[in-house]
Fold each of these.
Amino acid sequence: MPIDADFANTLVALRIARSRIDGYGVFAAEAVSADRKLGELTGEAITVAEARRRAQGRQRIMMVELSASRAVDATRSADPLRFTNHSCQPNARIGVEAGAIEFFALRDIEAGEELTVDYGQTHHEGRLACRCGQPGCIGWL
């Protein structure tokens, strides 16, 4: 069942619902203009070594490495942005500024559109099939 809410760390209205890409996704509940900040992701501050240990054998996680030694585990976070799926042609990006994990629209996003980012390098190391379905999909994460 879709969840519409005013989440504390988001700047736009978001909705969590089933995704055609994988599991649940986060969807814009309003139109969003390009370059607009969508919100911030929070979670447990951990070491990169601990993040990689936690990621072993798991397919659904949300870890962001902030530096060579620091990471954030948002797997149990209440933030809706943790449901952001990967796409080879994303409509949003993740930026890290002063330790804050921020999401920004890369282009105009329509209400009802799923928010996606390019995960870049992942713990899957090319072993997990990409399900984005976009033209030019690289096929693996």
Note: The chain has one domain: 3-117.
Amino acid sequence: MSFRSIEQLLRRNSKIKISQSIANGIHDQKEEQSVQALRESLLASNQLPEKFDDHHVLLRFLRMRGFNIIKAKEMFLNMLKWREDCAVDTIAKDFKFEEFDALKRCYPHGFHGVDRFGRPLYIERIGSVDLSKLMQVTSIDRYIKYHISEQEKTLSLRYPACSLAAKKHISSTTAILDVKGLGMNNFSKAAREMFIGIQKIDSNYYPETLHQLYIINAGSGFRALWKVLKAFMEARTLKKIQVAHVFFP
């Protein structure tokens, strides 16, 4: 069964249940203890919505904060507040990105099957982005809402679909970023605002959903830009990024 057909199957039947062994995976004992400690702390203060009462969800926040229970709890509660302030559940359910086709023509990006371990594979040709056209077909605010809706879709649809196909728990994405032609000249005020906004959302509210990011076709222009971009990124995220300073056909 293809990845697309699994997506369609999950869409058609919301009652599909992935077996516990696939959904939960194998838990490390020390991680299990940390997750339980965080869970009990949140429950004690009545701050754990049923939707997020999940081993892997709590584990993502713990990993991002080096298994510091206090810091992980603070990060988790900040995520809940952000979701309420930004009406994320409403975005996930009702947001319609009518300009999607126009956006794809000036910003080639999307998911393309899975990697060899079964994780969803995301590919983006950011070096080919026509930012002036992009700003004509959408706004930064609407693009960020589109990004949030895609993140929600990945959590609720893509990861369960991949877990079902791989017969193991999948909760992270492999990404390939083609930066051919990208340099400081491309990093306009609008591009900077969009990058910082998305980076903040992904790091603070969807932690540990990136498995590995491969940056390809990185030329001299990108190397200068990369020094700037790294300043906005978490150290843990940077460790997951590999930059190839060579060109591929």
Note: Residues 13-21 have pLDDT under 50 and may be disordered.
